[in-house]
Amino acid sequence: MPELPEVEAARRAIEEHCLGKKIVKSIIADDSKVVDGVSHKDFEASLNGKTIVAAHRKGKNMWLQLNSPPFPSFQFGMTGAIYIKGVAVTKYKRSSVKDTDEWPSKYSKFFVELNDGLEVSFTDKRRFARVRLLDNPVAVPPISELGPDALLEPMAVDEFHKLLSKKNLGIKALLLDQGFISGIGNWVADEVLYQAKIHPLQSASSMSIEVCGTLLNCINEGRKLSLSMLVAGRQLTCQNFKNSGEHKLQKKQVNHRKAQLKTPKILKKVLVVMIMMMMNQKGRKMQKLENPK
After folding, report:
1. Which of 10, 161, 207, 223 sits at a 20 to 30 Å CA gap from 85?
2. What count of other Cβ atoms lies within 10 Å of the Cβ of residue 206?
3. Of 2, 5, 104, 200, which residue is the catalytic one?
4. The predicted structure's pLDDT at residue 268
5. Tens-place pLDDT, residues 133-143
6. Where does the Formamidopyrimidine-DNA glycosylase catalytic domain lie (predicted)?
7. Which pLDDT value is given to residue 188?
């Protein structure tokens, strides 16, 4: 699933290769599940002849600023990705679109050709992404509902501690809440909590200002490091988050991971027991119907 580093890498690639160029052709997929709130024909008509003047991001959302509104906005979902033909947006291998595949991909939802021949496509294989056409993307959901961006809008320790003190839920769940901090996903939350030596189920309101400061530093360092490694093509793993990727995965870290899986396993067992009890109860009722006194 794309997280802030992947979306930021896409934004930077657009910024580097596409700014100042005019859209001469566009193809928007006729897919109302992904292309939200506008027909593909109207979307195409609004793009043709426009110039890309900026690329913006907040959390895991990105939008292109054209020389006049409306602007295309991208919510990446689970498998959304930006591809620029002939350009490595990121240097690690991605599976959705291969070099040998047709272009634009059959999974393309947004495709534009620029006046210098450069071609850009937003693909979404599993169709959980959303592509919108908005006059002011920051003024409407989902972007208007996002919390501070984890990379661009770092909090002060006092502010961070004050916000956490009001939240009586597990710290990992809070970090995943995009309305609290935008851009942190599952694997980054795991890594920063491990580096800060904080249990993912610890109540946010119970954390001291010193612990909050440590966590905030880990969030800031982890985001910058993961982005630099993504662009450089290095693997994004827990081994990257300490000493620039030189430390080894410790058994303690594995146990830390397992702690997060206990609740789902318990719930699964409880569900199985409940189903068995319901089946037994249904069986007894059937017996009474078949053998009435």
Report:
1. 223
2. 11
3. 2
4. 59
5. 999 999 999 99
6. 2-129
7. 84
Tell me where in the chain the CATH 1.10.8.50 domain(s) lie: 157-232
pTM of the model: 0.76
What does residue 3 show for φ and ψ, rounded to 5 degrees? -120, -175
How many residues are given for the chain? 293
- In this predicted structure, the answer to whether residue 245 has a pLDDT above a threshold of 70 is no
CB of 52 closer than 8 Å to CB of 72: no
Known active-site residue 293:
no
Average pLDDT, integer, range 187-209: 93
* Fold adopted by 157-232: Helicase, Ruva Protein; domain 3 (1.10.8)
Which residue shows structure tokens 């006729």?
30
Catalytic site residue 72? no
- Contact (Cβ atoms closer than 8 angstroms) between residue 5 and residue 226: yes
The DSSP annotation for 146-209 comes to ---BTTTSPPPHHHHHHHHTT--SBHHHHHH-TTTSBS--HHHHHHHHHHTT--TTSBGGG--H
Residue of 21, 60, 109, 172 marked catalytic: 60
pLDDT tens digits for range 216-227: 999 888 766 665
- Residues of the chain within CATH 3.20.190.10 domain(s) are 4-134
Strand order in the sheet with 71-75: 35-36, 130-134, 71-75, 61-66, 52-58
The whole-number pLDDT of residue 96 equals 59
Find the range with the poorest average confidence among 118-122, 175-179, 188-192: 188-192
Cα–chain center distance at 17: 23
25-53 burial, b at 16+ Cβ within 10 Å, e below that, comes to ebbbbeeeebbeebebeebbebbeebbbe
Predicted confidence band at 266 (pLDDT cuts at 50, 70, 90)? low
**DSSP SS3 for 245:** helix
Active-site annotation holds for 142: no
Which architecture does CATH list for 4-134?
A: Alpha-Beta Barrel (3.20)
